[in-house]
Design goal:
Order of helices and strands: EEEHHEEEEEEHEEHEEEEEEHHEEH
Helix content: 10-25%
Oligomer: single chain
CATH class of the largest domain: Alpha Beta
Number of domains: 3
Distance between the termini: 73 Å
Radius of gyration: 23 Å
Number of strands: 19
Length: about 350
C-alpha cells in the first residue's frame, strides 16, 4: 500500500489530502474500517462524515462508508485537520453577521481582528466571538455548535468569512476551497498604474528564504505551491489604482505577495513595503496628503468583497457581497478629490 499525505499549510492549513493505493493482497473490507487502520488519529465517525460529504473517492468515484475496498483500488481521502487543542473562551465581541443557519455562518470581519486563537492571540479573535454567539444555540443532536473554520483571511484584511457550525458542513465546504469551486473576489488599493485593464498573476508562493514572516514568489516553481490571481482595474488615480482580484487558489498572503511581485504593493501594507510613497514625487504637499491617507488606513488596503459556495445541506448555490469598509472608501474618496484638483 502506498500512502501520499498532503497537508495544506497555506491560507487554509485546515485539511489533509491522502492518496492510497491498495495492495494486491488486500481482502475485501469496508472502506471506513480500512481507512481507520491506516489514517492515524482519525475516528470512524470522521471518516463516515467525509464519505457523506463525497470526500472519499475510489478510482475517481465518490463512495459510501460501506464500500468494500479491492486490490488495486486508488483511494483519495479529503479530511479536515484535527481540531486545535487551544480552549476557545466565549467573549462578547460585536459581530457583523451577514447570514446564518444551522449549518454555517457568513461574517463580515473588521480590521484588526485575528480569526482564530494562537500564539500571542489567545483572546479577542473571531472564534472567541462566535463561540459566545453560539452558546445559547442547539444543533440537531442537542449539542451547542462550535465554530469550525473552512478558510482564513489576515488580521488586517476586512470582509467576508465563511464558518461552519458542524463537522459535516466543515468538510463539505472545505472541499470546495480545496477544489477551487468557491468564488472569491477581493477589492484592493495598490500602488501604481496599469498598462492593461486586466491580467493574471501566476507564480509559486512560499515562505521567503530570507524572512519566514513574509511570502515570496518563485516563478520557476522550485519552492512554494502554485498560485493564480486574476485582477481587473476598477479605478485609476495615476499614483494608485483600485483593483478587483479573483482568487483561483488560496495561498497565505496571495494577493499581497502577487501584487508586490508585479510591482504594485498594496497601499498601506507594511509587510510588503506599501506603507511609504512608491509612486509620485516627495514634495511636501503630496507627501503630506499620502501620509494622512496612511494614517487613515494603517493596514493593507484589502477587502474580501464577495464569497460564493454551494450549501452543504440544500445544495443551493449561495453568494454574498460586502461593501467597502469606511477606511478604504475614505481613501478612494480622498484620492478622487486629489486627482480632480490636480487636473483643474
Amino acid at each position: 500500500m502506498q500512502v501520499e499525505d498532503t497537508i495544506n499549510n497555506d491560507e487554509l492549513s485546515l485539511y489533509e489530502n491522502y492518496r492510497i493505493e491498495v495492495d494486491k493482497g488486500q481482502s475485501l473490507l469496508r472502506i471506513d474500517k480500512f481507512l481507520m487502520a491506516r489514517l492515524e488519529g482519525t475516528s470512524r465517525n470522521k471518516i463516515q462524515m467525509a464519505a457523506r460529504a463525497n470526500c472519499i473517492k475510489v478510482n475517481d468515484n465518490a463512495v459510501k462508508p460501506n464500500y468494500r475496498v479491492k486490490p488495486g483500488d486508488v483511494i483519495q481521502v479529503f479530511l479536515t485537520s484535527p481540531p486545535q487543542t487551544i480552549e476557545i473562551i466565549p467573549q462578547d465581541i460585536p459581530l457583523n453577521i451577514v447570514y446564518e443557519d444551522e449549518d454555517l455562518v457568513v461574517v463580515n470581519k473588521p480590521a484588526n481582528m485575528v480569526v482564530h486563537p494562537g500564539y500571542g492571540n489567545y483572546t479577542g479573535t473571531l472564534l472567541n466571538a462566535l463561540t459566545f454567539h453560539f452558546q445559547d444555540q442547539k444543533d440537531k443532536t442537542g449539542e451547542t455548535p462550535k465554530p469550525l473554520l473552512v478558510h482564513r483571511i489576515d488580521k488586517d484584511t476586512t470582509g467576508l468569512l465563511l464558518v461552519a457550525k458542524n463537522e459535516y458542513s466543515q468538510t463539505y465546504l472545505a472541499k470546495q476551497f480545496f477544489d477551487h469551486t468557491t468564488e472569491r473576489q477581493y477589492t484592493a488599493i495598490v500602488w501604481g498604474d496599469f498598462q492593461e485593464e486586466s491580467g493574471t498573476i501566476e507564480g509559486h508562493i512560499g515562505r521567503s528564504l530570507r524572512d519566514r514572516k513574509v511570502m515570496d514568489i518563485f516563478p520557476d516553481g522550485e519552492h512554494g505551491k502554485p498560485a493564480i490571481t486574476h485582477y481587473n482595474v476598477i479605478k485609476r488615480f495615476g499614483y494608485i489604482s483600485q483593483v478587483q482580484c479573483k482568487l483561483e487558489t488560496g495561498r497565505t498572503h496571495q494577493i499581497r505577495a502577487h501584487m508586490k511581485h508585479i510591482g504594485h504593493p498594496l497601499f498601506g501594507d507594511k509587510t510588503y513595503g506599501g506603507d511609504k510613497i512608491l509612486k509620485g514625487t516627495t514634495f511636501s504637499k503630496y507627501k503630506q496628503f499620502v501620509d494622512n491617507c496612511l494614517q487613515i488606513l494603517p493596514r493593507q488596503a484589502l477587502h474580501a468583497a464577495t464569497i460564493g459556495f454551494t450549501h452543504p445541506t440544500t445544495g443551493e448555490r449561495m453568494s454574498f457581497s460586502s461593501e467597502l469598509p469606511e477606511d478604504m472608501q475614505t481613501i478612494i474618496n480622498r484620492w478622487t478629490t486629489y486627482v480632480s484638483g490636480n487636473k483643474e
